[in-house]
Every structure is written in structure tokens, then in C-alpha cells.
Specification:
The protein is mainly alpha-helical and about 140 residues long. The chain contains five helices and two strands. Helix 1 runs antiparallel to helix 3. The chain is elongated and about 60 Å long. The two termini are about 35 Å apart. Mean pLDDT is about 80; it is low at about 1-20.
Length: about 140
């Protein structure tokens, strides 16, 4: 039973690593930006400002990602011990959670700043693009 618990925890930790990185490779996230910019028909000035803001965000998130990666490795190491320290495990999980929360707040702040650059028509289009679409088998 103990082995099963350790395996389950390790699986969750390793899966959380991809979640911490946004779940998508950097190149794929860049394609998303280009697609959205094209659909919104951004002016050159808007596009340049949004790209600069996005680059600033990505640089800022890099430190958080590295911290999450390091904390996840520490958690993995601790969980592999014969008798893991419960307080240390809880502390590491909290630190990982704090880093992820900080990343989400940075993303949201960046999004709100970029939305200020949009015209009313672009804001309406963006709002429509962000709305979940109903597919044949439910929400997607």
C-alpha cells in the first residue's frame, strides 16, 4: 500500500510539471499568439506592443518555472525516502502551489494590460473567441 501511495504521489508530481509549464510547448504557444493576432486584425503598433508584453511575461515566468521544477525535484526526492518528512512534503507542495498562483496572476495581469490596447470591436471579437463553444458532444 505504501509503495502504491508513493507511486501515485510521484505520478502527480511529474504530471504537475507539465501543468506548471502551461501544458504546451513554447513553439505551440507562439502559434496561438499569431493566430489570435491575425483573427483580431491587430495593427502593427498593437501587435508590437502585445509581442513585447508577451516576451516580458515569458521572461518573468521563466524564473517561476525553474523554481517549480526545482521544488518538484525536491518533493520527488523527499517522497522516495523510506520515511518522508510530512512537514517538508507539505511545505514543498505549498511552495509549488504559491509559484503556480504567482504565474497565473502574472498571466492575468498581462492579459488585462493587452486588452487595454484593443479597440472596442477587437474587444468584442476577443470576448467572442474566448467564449466556450458547444460541440456535438458537449462543451469543448
Amino acid at each position: 500500500m505504501r509503495t502504491l501511495s508513493v507511486i501515485l504521489c510521484l505520478t502527480l508530481v511529474m504530471a504537475s510539471g507539465s501543468w506548471a509549464f502551461g501544458g504546451k510547448p513554447q513553439a505551440e504557444r507562439g502559434k496561438n499568439y499569431d493566430r489570435i493576432a491575425k483573427q483580431l486584425n491587430l495593427t502593427k503598433e498593437q501587435s508590437e506592443k502585445c509581442k513585447a508584453s508577451n516576451e516580458k511575461l515569458q521572461a518573468s515566468l521563466k524564473a517561476n518555472r525553474e523554481e517549480v521544477k526545482q521544488l518538484a525535484e525536491q518533493l520527488k526526492s523527499e517522497l522516495q525516502l523510506e520515511n518522508p518528512d510530512r512537514n517538508k512534503v507539505h511545505s514543498l507542495i505549498k511552495k509549488i502551489s504559491d509559484q503556480r498562483t504567482e504565474m497565473e496572476l502574472k498571466r492575468m495581469d498581462s492579459l488585462l494590460e493587452m486588452r487595454k490596447l484593443l479597440t472596442p470591436e477587437q474587444k468584442a471579437k476577443f470576448k467572442e473567441m474566448a467564449r466556450p463553444k458547444r460541440g456535438r458532444w458537449g462543451w469543448r
